[in-house]
Amino acid sequence: MRTPIIAANWKMYKSPAESVKFIREFLPMIESHGDSEVVLFPTATSLVSVIDAVRGSVIRAGAQTMHWLNEGPYTGQTSPTMLTSIGATHVLLGHSERRLYANETYEHVNLKIKAACAHALTPVVCLGEMLSDRQEGYTADTLMAQMGAALANFPQDRAHTLVIAYEPVWAIGTGSTASPEIANETHSIIREELKRRFGAEIADEMRILYGGSVKPSNVAELMAQPEIDGALVGGGSLDPETFSQIVRFGHRDKPERPA
Ligand code: 13P
To answer: Residue 187: which CATH number?
Structure first.
């Protein structure tokens, strides 16, 4: 059975003090949250404070992006070794906002995934189509192209460590979530491609999260879908009470997938 992951992408919100305040309030709220993994992705300047504040708890923390090299003349960048040196365990890669506003391509994502795995950081790789892709019937083609570039020459023996986040761009920050059925169907397309690349046994172990307007009111229905293994939450993760509800309702004991 795949352990669910409920992750918070705080984007460009929360100072270090605000992040620590969130964690102090949030931790007691999720004491009996089940066995989901909970991961926070704060902005870079809050990451050290977040890692300190979650130490000893079930929560893990990671960066919203990184460079693939360990050091060099790259102004504004953070390297994999810098992240591991402060205790980060995860890294978000290829988020559509970084592709849109920071020129991140899936060729970059490919280099970053490989670097993350080489440094034992868990990469959470974002995929997702634009509204026009879906309306014109190109959702599967778009996802195949994204995976083709992001996962090129990725070693099969590392594939189980990858986490995929399916985030349809039209559902991010818009309040309109993909219906559980549409999300599940799209996750199946992604898993079929993962099977083709890495084999059924490995692909069945890999977690595919859904992201895009996840809230306490829709998370249970999404998580009840057999192909949805967790959530990547933006706006709904900024308030401790709301996010704790997502963590609680987002926990689902799913039946084993048939062999
Ligand atoms: P929202 O939950 O605000 O739609 O954002 C989703 C997202 O981009 C998470 O990475």
So the answer is: 3.20.20.70
Q: How far is the CA of 174 from the centre of ligand 1 (A)?
A: 9
Structure tokens at 257: 């997938």
The amino acid occupying position 27 is L
H or E, element range at 220? helix 216-223
> What's the CA-to-centroid distance between 185 and ligand 1, angstroms?
20
Asked if residue 216 lies in contact with residue 246, where contact means CB atoms within 8 angstroms, the answer is: yes
3-state secondary structure of 156: helix
Number of domains in the chain: 1
Structure tokens at 172: 């991010």
Q: What ligand 1 atom has the least distance to the C-alpha of 171?
A: 4
pLDDT value of position 87: 98
The whole-number pLDDT of residue 175 equals 83
Give 10-residue mean pLDDT values along the chain (259 residues).
95 98 96 86 98 96 98 97 98 96 96 97 97 95 98 95 96 87 97 97 97 95 96 98 93 51
Is 160 an annotated catalytic residue? Answer: no
Number of H helices, E strands in the chain: 11, 8
Note whether residue 127 is domain-resident: yes
Domain that holds residue 112: 5-249
Annotated catalytic residue: which of 67, 90, 95, 108?
95
Ordered DSSP codes for 225-240? STT--EEEESGGGSSH
Which protein residue has the closest C-alpha to ligand 1 atom 7?
234
The answer as to whether 70 is a domain residue is yes
Is 258 inside any structural domain? no
Alpha-carbon distance values, 61 to 56, 68, 170, 183 (Å): 12, 19, 27, 26
Query: What is the C-alpha separation between 12 and 93, in angstroms, rounded?
Result: 15
Residue 122 lies in a domain: yes
Q: Which atom of ligand 1 is nearest to the CA of 173?
A: 4
